[in-house]
Structure prediction request, 405 residues.
Amino acid sequence: MGKISLEWAECASLTILQMGRNRISGKILSELGKLIQLRNLSLGCNELSGEIPQSLGRLIELKELDLSQNKLTGNIPKELGITSLESLNVSHNQLLGEIPASFYTMVNLNSSSIDFSYNKLTGQIPVSKVFEEAPAEAYVRNSGFCGNAEGLPTSYTDSKRKKHSNMLLFIVLIPVCGLLLLAIIVAGIIIFYQKTQFLGVERRRLGESLIWEGEGKFTFKDIVEASEDFNEKYCIGKGGFGTVYRVALPNSQIVAVKRLNMSDSSEIPSANRHSFENEIRVLTEVRHWNIIKPNGYFSIRGCMYLVYDYVERGSLGNALYGLKGNVELNWNTRVKILQGVAHAVAYLHHDCSPPIVHRDITVNNILLEPDFESRLSDFGVARLLNPDTSNWTPIAGSYGYMAPR
Prediction:
């Protein structure tokens, strides 16, 4: 690792310098040109950058030069045409321009030991038996070589003709691929639209089972098994619009499941259906810390279910009238609870579009976190208000808790 040290340039009698595969960075020192007795210089498989220094042309005794697999740029210096060289490898760099024509004088080079591949080199290769007999692999992946070597066009005209042919093929393929891609996109949009329409109809009919991303995914089967098919011992509350169960899921998540009440007949009363649809719609649209968070809903086996976060302390009603109510609810705690409810109501009235009126804020619909942070729940009688229309509606809510009219 690191850079080439200047100390190497002081070793005047050095004949072999092999520093390949060492993750050396920086530039090749021009001072290496002082090592006139050097016969083997190997700097391949590093991270060297910059240009090849012209000073390397002073290494008149050099027989093997390996600068491959670095990040070298610029032109190959003509001074590098050392007549004593037998092996030259500058492949896998970013070298530009042509192979210097003066390289035809490198009569000691072995055709099988030269490699200029994987660069950005162009132009005519040197007119020499060494370069013409080199394997095609020595010139692959460059910008445009030509000459008498195997696999190369014989002239710039042939090279341009080949490029022109490739361009025509490219011009033909682009529209075909574009049309194919467009057809795939259109088909995808149509399929997505059809699925969206289908899901929209299903949601309106509540003929579905939907789970949102929460702490983890779960299914209706998980809820049924965890609650022992909604055994009464898991019931934590009953109201005018349904029964609520505490369910501990296999993934350690605890949720509250509200099951909509049904009539004695096989049909769900339209008023209860409308109430449940309202609760789903409101909860999916609001996002506020003081408003209960939904996890999903189901419409299965002739019943409708709403799943949301379980709040450990239960309702404010339990805290007020339960055994611990008089001890825990001091004035500071009560003020904190009221502030949370006020924030929730302010959000519904002023930050939702259109505004939402809850219409049934009772002590049983205000849930308490362990730190007595309040969470507003039960939107069964909520109504979305359209500011451009009249908002007179029938009386709805719990008697004693309805806002004055």
Notes: The radius of gyration is 40 Å. The mean pLDDT is 78.
